[in-house]
Amino acid sequence: MAKGSIIELHRNSGNWNKIVGDIVKLERKIFPKHESLATLFDQELRKKNSGLLYLDLDGEVVGYAMYSWPSSLSALITKLAVKEEWRRQGHGEALLKAAIEKCRTRKVSRILLHVDPTRTPALTLYTKQGFQVDTLVEAYYSSDRNAYRMYLDFDSN
Ligand SMILES: CC(C)(COP(=O)(O)OP(=O)(O)OC[C@H]1O[C@@H](n2cnc3c(N)ncnc32)[C@H](O)[C@@H]1OP(=O)(O)O)[C@@H](O)C(=O)NCCC(=O)NCCS
Questions:
Q1: How far is CA 80 from CA 55, 105, 143, in A?
Q2: How far, in Å, from the CA of 139 to the mean position of ligand 1?
Q3: What is the pLDDT of residues 71-123, one digit of tens each?
């Protein structure tokens, strides 16, 4: 696979506007409106307890993962996506692993996420990385779209 670099976007990054702009474009393309953070991305990212990793391949943003740690108990993976033409090359898994490591440094004991059960690639990837289904949340995304809530627990030692 083309390797690229996974980079953390910082609030004071000089390229903030460009990177957020590129991600908003991807977000609009990949997710339906009711699941998209496109209009809120900048706002979400400026919150204190949130972070964003993106994959840069020769200057092109081809994937991203967003996470937050609202309390000391658990963190959330709030977004994960890879540009369509770059899928099935290990990038999604690399981004997810990097986001898990970022959450681990926050000393939380659990990571939570939500995924539409019909999103087989994502569901398979999360399961591969050790996430387990906790519960089905009905009408999570919209009146006719449910979500699995999944969790990954860290060892206490
Ligand atoms: C989910 C997503 C990020 C995966 O990205 P990716 O770069 O294609 O994934 P990878 O190449 O790293 O695949 C890693 C693992 O994911 C699973 N996977 C990925 N694509 C899959 C597919 N089409 N079908 C089944 N499993 C799949 C496999 O377990 C794979 O491991 P393997 O290669 O050893 O079989 C990507 O499909 C995507 O952006 N989807 C649309 C957005 C989305 O659904 N995001 C999640 C919202 S909760």
A1: 11, 19, 22
A2: 23
A3: 889 999 999 999 999 999 999 999 999 999 999 999 899 999 999 999 999 99
Domain boundaries, given as residue ranges, for the chain = 5-153
Distances (CA, A) of 8 to 20, 34, 91: 12, 26, 15
What is the CATH architecture assignment of 5-153? 3-Layer(aba) Sandwich (3.40)
Minimal-distance CA residue to ligand 1 atom 10: 90
**Does the beta carbon of 123 sit less than 6 angstroms from any atom of ligand 1?**
no
Indicate whether this model's pTM tops 0.90. yes
Q: From the CA of 84, how far away is ligand 1's center (Å)?
A: 10
3-15 pLDDT per residue, tens: 789 999 988 888 9
Nearest CA to ligand 1 atom 19: 121
